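Fill in residues.
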């Protein structure tokens, strides 16, 4: 969907603060509140804006460890993939999962309280999903960049 200058300014403002009042967004875009409200509604209806949610501090909530788990399946049947993807959906410690190219089938982003908790998640949950063949874990030592705002060109 092509975005004009006003759409980009609206999205940029909402990416900075999704709770920003429409009047403040209007101020930043040099439009009045009514057209800004209509544009926001259109961006939501068109699926450009998918929703609004708070950004939580995982460490403050007790999740000290951030890890990525690379997973290979032993076969790529529909049933195997379905079973795996459902197990991933059901696991509350998996915060993202991507099917990837290369040596592994999936890249799974996991949060855990500590290394022991990561071990439990991996050994008692991920490894035991029927059809999982290989699992490799990567523990994040330091996050250099964690941008949530998308570039608007």
């Amino acid at each position: 969907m092509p975005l004009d200058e006003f759409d980009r300014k609206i999205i940029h403002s909402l990416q900075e603060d999704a709770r920003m009042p429409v009047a403040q967004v209007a101020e930043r875009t040099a439009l009045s509140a009514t057209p800004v409200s209509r544009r926001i509604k259109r961006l939501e209806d068109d699926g450009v804006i998918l929703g609004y949610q708070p950004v939580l501090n995982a460490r403050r909530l007790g999740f000290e460890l951030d890890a990525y788990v690379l997973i290979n399946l032993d076969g790529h049947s529909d049933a195997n993939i379905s079973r795996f993807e459902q197990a991933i959906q059901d696991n509350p410690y998996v915060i993202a999962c991507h099917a990837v190219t290369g040596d592994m089938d999936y890249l799974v982003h996991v949060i855990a309280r500590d290394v022991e908790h990561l071990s439990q998640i991996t050994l008692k949950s991920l490894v035991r999903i029927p059809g999982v063949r290989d699992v490799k874990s990567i523990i994040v030592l330091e996050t250099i960049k964690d941008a949530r705002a998308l570039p608007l060109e």
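Helices lie at 5-16, 22-29, 33-45, 78-90, 115-126.
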